[in-house]
Design brief:
single chain; alpha+beta; six-stranded mixed sheet; 2 helices
Length: about 120
């Protein structure tokens, strides 16, 4: 196992790594809409989802991977009524690539954000 860390995404806010590589697979921790400097993006679901993707791109790059190598995502949302707007942003970042995905509404997320996303990706 190899821990992945980058200063281009927010530091872990607890006792965990930004991600782990095991057998050429990268497993990210959930990314929330914090900037790399740790500031909360306190906008709507579109702004928050875009920031989450910036963080995912950063940890994927640090792992030697990218969005087009993602095989599975899990999306946690505070309000499923935001699904259509989140999904539009999600699709714009993945383009033609369509990894497997789960999306669930949860009672609460860290720092009371609207969205958190984690990924599993191939590392070449």
């Amino acid at each position: 196992m190899k821990a992945v860390a980058t200063t281009k995404a927010p530091a872990a806010i607890g006792p965990y790594a930004q991600g782990m590589i095991v057998n050429n697979m990268f497993y990210s921790s959930g990314q929330i809409p914090l900037t790399a400097s740790g500031e909360l993006v306190d906008g709507d679901i579109v702004e928050q989802t875009n920031q989450v993707f910036e963080n995912l791109k950063a940890v994927l790059a640090a792992a030697g991977s990218s969005l087009d190598q993602v095989v599975k995502t899990t999306v946690f949302m505070k309000d499923m009524n935001d699904f259509a707007a989140m999904n539009e942003v999600y699709a714009s970042h993945f383009g033609e690539h369509k990894p497997a995905r789960s999306a669930v509404e949860v009672a609460r997320l860290p720092k009371d954000v609207k969205v958190e996303i984690e990924v599993i990706a191939l590392v070449k």
